[in-house]
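Sharing a chain and its predicted structure for anyone who wants a worked example. Both blocks are below, sequence first, tokens second.
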Amino acid sequence: MSGQAAADRAFKRVSHWIGGAPYAGSSQARGPLFDPATGAHSGEVDLATVEEVGLAVSAAKEAFPAWRELSLSRRAELFFRIRQLFDEHREELAMHLTAEHGKTLPDALGEVARGLEVIDFCCGLPTLLKGGFSEQVSTGVDVYSIRGPLGVVAGITPFNFPAMVPMWMWAPALACGNTFVLKPSEKDPSASMLAAHLLAQAGVPAGVFNVINGDRIAVDALLAHPDVTAVSFVGSTPVAKRVYETATAAGKRCQALGGAKNHMIVLADADLAMAADAAVSAAYGSAGERCMAVSMVVAVGTIADDLVSAIAERIPKLKIGNGLDPGVDMGPLVTREHRDRVASYVERAPSEGATVVVDGRDSAPEQGFFLGASLIDNVTPGMDTYEDEIFGPVLGVTRVQNYEEALRLVNDNPYGNGAAIFTRDGGVARQFQFDVQAGMVGVNVPIPVPVAYYSFGGWKQSLFGDRHIYGPEGIDFYTRSKVVTARWPDPAGSTVDLGFPQTR
């Protein structure tokens, strides 16, 4: 096969999944797909019309009654098959992530594993959906509560975790008896299409799970559709706020997870090597394209010089390249435009008064959308490097004199996704977890993503809504309660009583 023929064969088109089968979009609007490691145009993704979004919602609505009626035991049995199939295809899922997002294959496999944890949690759905019962609350009267599904729910997911974040949504949603319409990022949609095939193979009925690829047109259509009862979203804060306000104004339940500016406080008594290793791992993993990435190190007191030196010493040891190559630590960014935007922060940092200790632009491969790891010292509030969510391999260091000043930086920040402290002092660590205003807290753990039986979510401008994603709060989000008050005929008879009901 010639090189051109191989290239033509590799060029792919990604469309939709509606009503249990692939659906070739009728619109001529398509978005480009790229291989971030080479910069090559690798395919196209169909961008859904309003009408195609309507078809997906209609398919989900039609499938809802039968899916809701399926017994908990049968649904749990089905979830065990889903878990097995996704486990068997974890490497295939990971390959899609590396090909379209650019993260290394080991990192992609880790993403799939964290998604599988949520499916594991949902396999216990009979226990998760238990209600409560109170006998004899009044003479001959019992009261009990029932958890029920909402109906058709939608998920709108980001480019940086194209397998895991959708699993965080559709797994609990389906487990609770809802039907689902997923709108993944148009930058890396293939993992969601593979998920649709695997769910169908497991036996999920047609229409229960649907995938609509698209851009803002598809998002707005989902937010406006009267048959969509709830929306889950993960993305930037400005978009999260708009999604939340639009969805709730339309009477929908909404959880919208936004951006982050995660701080890692390092006290003078911290284990220096441990803190430096953690900072490098958490700042530059997945090229910094994580909402839980550490983007600011807050060095407290005398540890600052040694900590900056230790981080700088580790950066040249990072191997940058194609995520499929063995031994690569960091792959490319997702698009050329995003790479250039991230690099611009490094370029203008000196003009703001910061010090570029390591310039990642100097170590970036020329081919593809690469940017090396950058370290910027003497970053202070008010600088763009401090204020903005850069979402790339740029780590800033802010120097403060004491714990109180460090805590104030974290709590004054408009974001509240995650925060970490590195110290040997248990008392200070406990005080930090009490004081800090963030939804996820790490003590000598730089990326404190909760296990699946807790819930993931931030505070302040990092979350719009009152329920976090997956775990117990995810079950709450995808269900609503019904309270039944029951009394059966009494042989002694009954009487007319127009008074307000009282327990007796």
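Comments welcome. The first helix runs from residue 3 to 10.
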